[in-house]
């Protein structure tokens, strides 16, 4: 059993890095059918043992995921001041890793206040509304892995780790949804064919609890975010098994491909589910690659959606499903394998 867990920890964190590295060159793009052929060839090359090229660099998604792992492995109890310092150190070292435009402000305030109240700066973002970006969701996978056998602790830690930078309900619930999806994938048997309907139903049930808990019993004050992710997951459910010419456009229109958590986390889950089967014009027999390649082919926030979809796919399939040439062509993958092993051993240590 621990052999399988080791493979799944590695698979998930490799998925997070590889989605980030391979998706980053396309971030912000609108993808045409011609571009999809380019992306097919791009992945063919990345899987080619003869292909020599510098590795694809990672971005903020991986930089922050690394810090979350360290937060989990280096302290016996969650220490959010420590996590804030790790985020800031990483950002100060390499500010040009493609961070969200507003996040630098949070980090500067943390630093200037000497990490006094690390949760305060994020609450001040966007006139007090907080960021609804996908920055919390994109780094949450290690928390799902580490706390997979303690669901309530997982949700609690994921919430607080997100709130260091993102306090908007859409960002927090999006991070929780991504976290739950990675956990469900980890718990699924990779030798059995996954049932997408069952997978979504379980997410729906869990998000219903989370979103209901948030509802003020006074109906007057109920707001759109009270059902937001349940409604999105209904769309994910309705898309299962569909295949027609304009489906990609439909997915982008209905689920989104943007930098907000709301327009990217359900999309990543959809990518994982759709890639359970063949996808037209994506020529590969490898489900892990299909997931990431498809996520990128939707355009928009390609690195982050591919990273989140990759973390889910890798948690389900395990390391064996990841092409070793693809690993070789991405930055920090070797290190991430060790990091995944550390995360698993840390579970037993404290
Ligand atoms: P963030 O907190 O800066 O949020 C991202 C962006 O979303 C902000 O800069 C705003 O433009 C917008 N935004 C968020 N909340 C609000 C709000 N309440 N009102 C109005 N606008 C809002 O950073 P983050 O960590 O959430 O960002 C993660 C994303 O940024 C990832 O995709 C990551 O890869 C990176 N990134 C994305 C792009 C892109 O073009 N897709 C480019 C560079 C970096
Ligand atoms: Mg990025
Ligand atoms: Mg159904
Ligand atoms: Mg991105």
Could you characterize what this model shows?
- By secondary structure, the chain is mainly alpha-helical.
- It is 61% helix and 0% strand.
- Helix 3 packs antiparallel against helix 4, helix 4 packs across helix 5 and helix 11 runs parallel beside helix 13.
- The radius of gyration is 19 Å and the shape is globular.
- The mean pLDDT is 95.
- It binds alpha-Diphosphopyridine nucleotide and magnesium ion (3 copies).
- Alpha-Diphosphopyridine nucleotide binds next to helix 3 and helix 15.
- The site of one magnesium ion has 4 residues, from helix 15.
Summary keywords:
single chain; mainly alpha; globular; binds alpha-Diphosphopyridine nucleotide; binds magnesium ion
Envelope shape: globular
- End-to-end distance: 20 Å
| Helical run tally | 17
| Assembly annotation | single chain
Ligands (ions, cofactors included):
alpha-Diphosphopyridine nucleotide, magnesium ion
For the CA atoms, what is the radius of gyration? 19 Å
Low-confidence segments, given as residue ranges, are none
Secondary structure category = mainly alpha
The tally of beta strands, per DSSP, is: 0
User: Mind summarizing the main beta sheet?
Assistant: none
| Strand fraction | under 5%
Report the mean per-residue pLDDT as an integer: 95
SSE run: HHHHHHHHHHHHHHHHH
Percent helix, as a range, is: 55-70%
């Amino acid at each position: 059993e621990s052999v399988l867990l080791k493979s799944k920890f590695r698979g998930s964190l490799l998925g997070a890095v590889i989605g980030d590295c391979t998706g980053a060159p396309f971030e912000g793009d609108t993808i045409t059918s011609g571009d999809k052929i380019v992306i097919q060839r791009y992945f063919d090359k990345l899987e080619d043992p003869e292909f020599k090229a510098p590795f694809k660099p990672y971005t903020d998604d991986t930089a922050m995921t690394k810090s979350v792992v360290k937060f989990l492995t280096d302290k016996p109890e969650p220490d959010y001041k420590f996590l804030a310092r790790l985020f800031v150190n990483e950002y100060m070292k390499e500010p040009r890793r493609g961070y969200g435009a507003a996040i630098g402000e949070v980090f500067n305030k943390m630093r200037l206040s000497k990490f006094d109240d690390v949760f305060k700066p994020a609450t001040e973002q966007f006139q007090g509304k907080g960021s609804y970006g996908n920055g919390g969701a994109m780094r949450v996978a290690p928390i799902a892995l580490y706390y997979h056998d303690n669901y309530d602790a997982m949700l609690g830690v994921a919430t607080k780790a997100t709130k260091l930078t993102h306090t908007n309900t859409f960002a927090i619930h999006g991070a929780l949804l991504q976290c739950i999806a990675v956990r469900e994938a980890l718990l699924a048997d990779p030798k059995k064919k996954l049932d997408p309907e069952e997978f979504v139903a379980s997410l729906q049930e869990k998000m219903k609890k989370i979103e209901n808990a948030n509802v003020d019993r006074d109906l007057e004050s109920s707001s759109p975010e009270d059902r937001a992710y349940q409604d999105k997951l209904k769309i994910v459910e309705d898309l299962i098994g569909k295949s027609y010419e304009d489906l990609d456009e439909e997915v982008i229109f209905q689920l989104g491909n943007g930098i907000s958590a709301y327009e990217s986390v359900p999309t990543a889950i959809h990518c994982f589910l759709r890639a359970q089967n063949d996808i037209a014009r994506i020529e590969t027999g490898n489900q892990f690659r299909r997931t990431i390649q498809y996520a990128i082919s939707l355009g928009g926030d390609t690195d982050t959606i591919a990273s989140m979809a990759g973390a889910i796919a890798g948690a389900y399939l395990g390391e064996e499903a990841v092409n070793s040439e693809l690993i070789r062509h991405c930055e920090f993958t070797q290190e991430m394998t060790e990091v995944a092993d550390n995360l698993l051993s840390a579970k037993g240590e404290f």
